[in-house]
Specification:
The chain is rod-shaped and about 110 Å long. It is 17% helix and 29% strand. It has a domain of 65 residues: Tumor Necrosis Factor Receptor, subunit A, domain 2 (Ribbon). A hairpin with an 8-residue loop joins β7 and β8. The N terminus and C terminus are likely disordered. By secondary structure, it is of the alpha+beta class. The two termini are 57 Å apart. This is Tumor necrosis factor receptor superfamily member 11B-like.
């Protein structure tokens, strides 16, 4: 059994390495027609993070150069210049990943905001009687839902969920004002409690259960 497991792991590792190698390999050479010589040549591509300075000739390979600061190319290419990295200058956004020769700068909305139509908007606050069922992210707005029976929300919030009404019984109290979707139950002394001695007796009986 152990031998079979070892063989399977070896096969998976080999496949993974092959896929990695294939992913890192440059694409087939590209055709370049030299108008001076009238010859069509197969030129090498420039690697990610580079751009082409001159095409290949019959005696030289493609000449490439590394992208300058704040510029990038993500793929094998023969472009004449690198692409400019985006700037994170819009309101309420900041840098998630910095610019490198092989990757564009990644921007993200700050906490409490989400991206929509290329701008950062504040997460919606669920109104009273509604609770958050899905918190907002830098890419999605808050999702709200009306509180169900037995629950409530008495605040406008982009984070608060609906809460269960307070159960007065375990505290030896009774509901003196029943809550709704916007307010909690109000607990108080039960009507049949006439003296402090009765209150003590009832609470002791509850604890002794």
């Amino acid at each position: 059994m152990w031998a079979l497991y070892t063989i399977c792991c070896g096969i998976l590792l080999t496949i993974n390495l092959l896929v990695r190698c294939e992913a890192d390999e440059p694409p087939p050479k590209w055709e370049y027609y030299n108008p001076l010589s009238g010859v069509t040549l197969l030129c090498d591509w420039c690697a990610p993070g580079e751009f082409m300075v001159t095409e290949c000739t019959e005696t030289t390979v493609t000449q490439c150069r590394t992208c300058a600061e704040n510029e990038y190319t993500e793929h094998y290419n023969h472009v004449r210049e690198c692409f400019r990295c985006r700037e994170c200058l819009k309101a309420h956004e900041h840098v998630l990943l910095g610019c490198t020769p092989t990757n564009n700068r990644q921007c993200v909305c700050e906490d409490g905001y989400f991206l929509a139509s290329e701008f950062c908007f504040q997460h919606t606050k669920c109104p009273i009687r509604y609770g958050v069922v899905q918190r907002g992210t830098p890419w999605k707005n808050t999702k709200c839902r009306r509180c169900s029976s037995g629950t409530f929300s008495n605040v406008e919030s982009s984070m608060a969920t609906c809460r269960n009404h307070t159960d007065c019984g375990p505290m030896g109290l009774c509901v003196t004002q029943r809550g709704n979707r916007g307010v909690d139950n109000v607990c108080g002394i039960c009507p049949h409690y006439n003296t402090s001695k009765d209150v003590f007796r009832e609470r002791w009986a509850y604890r002794s259960r």
